Here is the input.
Amino acid sequence: MGILDDAKEVADTAGRKIKDAFEDTTDRIGDKVDEVKADAEVKKAEADRDSVQKRNEIKEELRD
Here is the structure.
């Protein structure tokens, strides 16, 4: 029975390592997706800010 027990233990350990690696990979992918989304939101906010500034400049020029 010792060989079977050892094989089972090795299989369990390998299974846990594969599961942990999979979970780590999915976490990393999720983190990268969140990072890309945040960068896109920042770029959109900066573009909106620039647009508002330009509109305000044009309005100010028209007032003069």
In short: The mean pLDDT is 93. The helical segments are 2-63.
